[in-house]
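ok here's Diaminopimelate epimerase:
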Amino acid sequence: MINFWKYQGAGNDFIMIDDRNNTFNSNDFEKVAFLCHRRFGIGADGLILIRLKEGYDFEMVYFNADGHLGSMCGNGGRCAVRFAHTLGLFENKTSFWAADGAHEATLDDKQLVHLLMNPPGEIEVNNDHYFMDTGSPHYVRFENDLANFDCVTEGKAIRHNERFNEEGTNVNFAQVTGKQSLDVRTFERGVEDETYACGTGVTACAIAANIEHDMQSPIQVKVLGGQLAVGFTKVSDKKYTDIILTGPATPVFNAEIEG
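and the structure:
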């Protein structure tokens, strides 16, 4: 039997497994895909293992819903931090390892997780979109009416176009709603559908909003599943540091499943 927790961060939901004894077969992609399946399994946008790693409080091993190892997941990272806290791996501040390297995070008294994101490398500024890697690759395009926008059709077409079809990309559509606020909708690779939130995606959108609209930190970001915030320090043109993703990470239930 596999003991697991279900967590969600702004509607982005994850299966969380305490794998500090390294008993979960991380090469069994079919099992992971089954567990994430919303009809036949538990149902989730991804699966996260918490493992031990020398020099850090823990390691976060993230799988996409299709069963394959994923890149960094911002909302998954916040849920991993909250779960690791319940396991007693840290008190208020933690250092952990993820697919894109080391991260730090704090858990405040309101149970909000403040996660330090790694800065993007090269930021592409194109005529109608931005492209950058904020732990995962992200395409960002600004729109005027997200409420009536077909995120799935548009996102799928971009994710599977000639440039991105092989490696894939997450596709984000953002709308400016205020001086320091955005609405964001995201089509995620690996899930191959729109999700309720994407942490690395809203991070990319916030950076793009600073470049295109001179939007200042911190930026409030509304997603389908709730509210997130992105703070940052702009060092120079297209160079950023101290990028903090803030939002809730909420346990939903604990159960066992045969696996």
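+1. Helices lie at 29-36, 74-86, 151-159, 199-213.
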